[in-house]
Amino acid sequence: MQLTLTRPDDWHLHVRAADALRAVVPYTARCFRRAIIMPNLEIPVATVKQARAYRDEVLAAVPRGIDFEPLMTLYLTEKTTPEQIEKALRSGIVKAVKLYPAGATTNSASGVVRIEQTFPTLECMAAHGLPLLVHGEVTDANVDVFDRESAFIDRVLARLVERFPQLPIVLEHVTTEDGVEFVKSGSGRVAATITPHHLLYNRNAIFEGGLRPHFYCLPVLKRERHRNALVDAATGGDPRFFLGTDSAPHPRSRKESGCGCAGIFSAHAAMPLYAEVFEEAGALDRLEAFASFNGPAFYGLPRNDDTITLVREPWSVPESYPLGTEHVVPLRAGAEVRWQLTCEVADKR
After folding, report:
1. Residue 249 DSSP label
2. Beta-sheet strands, E only, within 39-138
3. Nearest residue to 100 via CA among 25, 50, 38, 144
4. What's the confidence (pLDDT) of residue 103?
5. Residue 110's pLDDT band (boundaries 50, 70, 90)?
């Protein structure tokens, strides 16, 4: 059995920097035509100049002969000005701005503490239709880690949607039934990306037979009822939900430590893993829209002109892949994936 799809895009991707970047970019480029590149490096990508330099670094890592476009984002801080947004719009390379609540995830210390400080900038973004991408978790120590997305929706996101009704907003890596319902109840201005790991696993995976650090991500995996809500959203045909892997590599040594990093590397098998989810839901006919149509429509970009082909042939994922001088442990390491991507990208025109 095989499945040919319009070449998809990844609307949420981490590629890190330097040797790690050069190791992981090819996995994405061989499958996806475009990818939204996250700006949370150790030195945040907060200006157009930084975004341009980072884009050049990503492009230099794309294998020869592969057509791939990195779509850049700016890291929102309380010092980001409307003037910086104007520069981003003129650049042609910046497609969104990312909101990290300070301390919410990897390299988010420079994120936002007082959301009100960003309102003039958000007003400018709304006026020009530049999307705000949201890491939707509060960082209040009194809020349970499994409730942080729901609390963020109540405390921050609902307020932003009400104040800036024209601002396109993406609730990145949505993980809860609450998040799904919030997107469904809103206008087409609010959308969400869904990762393969949140579709495939619930929080039991973190503790199966012991502590499994390679299943630790932020937002964390949730209860089974939340996973089921995500599967229904992804496979249900609603155009407000689309593909965003949140593939986030860390060296094995930084995952298997006394204070392990959050992030799951899935770029090596992203589309085959999504295909598993859609096959199990009896919705393979809806995978193309989720992966290839809904994201471009939200961002106002054309659909891609080429295709990829998935074949239903099992393969075993290696225990690890090189990551510069170290290694990264991928999702489904040492186990089987039922679908695989053929090597060719074909022009469908």
Report:
1. -
2. 69-75, 94-99, 132-134
3. 38
4. 87
5. confident
Catalytic, out of 246, 305, 306, 347: 246
Which pLDDT value is given to residue 219?
97
Q: Which residues are 336's β-sheet partners?
A: 316
Instruction: Report residue 270 as tokens.
Output: 């992203």
Closest by CA position to 167, among listed 206, 134, 126? 126
Distance between CA atoms of 220 and 242, rounded to whole angstroms? 19
Stated as kind and residue range, the H or E segment containing 162 is helix 158-163
User: Which string of b and e fits 206-217 if b means at least 16 CB within 10 Å?
Assistant: beeeeeebbbbb
Instruction: Give the pLDDT of residue 347.
Output: 66
CB 342 within 8 A of CB 309: yes
Q: What distance in Å separates the CA atoms of residue 107 and residue 35, rounded to the nearest whole number? A: 20
Q: What mean pLDDT value characterizes the chain?
A: 96
Read off the tokens for 17: 């920097």
Tell me how far apart the alpha carbons of residues 297 and 293 are, in angstroms, rounded to a whole number.
Answer: 6
178 part of the active site: no
What pTM was estimated for this model as a whole? 0.97
pLDDT level of residue 348 (50, 70, 90 thresholds): low
Higher pLDDT, 107 or 333: 333
DSSP 223-238: -HHHHHHHHHHHHTT-
Q: How many residues does the chain have?
A: 349
- 204 C-beta neighbours (distance < 10 Å), count: 12
Token output for 272: 């085959």
Of 293, 283, 172, the residue nearest 231 (C-alpha): 283
- Comparing C-alpha atoms, which of 282, 262, 284 is closest to residue 272? 284
Give 275's contacts (C-beta < 8 A, 6+ positions apart): 3, 284, 287, 310, 338, 339
Task: Tell me the pLDDT tens digit for each residue of 302-332.
Answer: 999 999 999 999 999 999 999 999 999 999 9
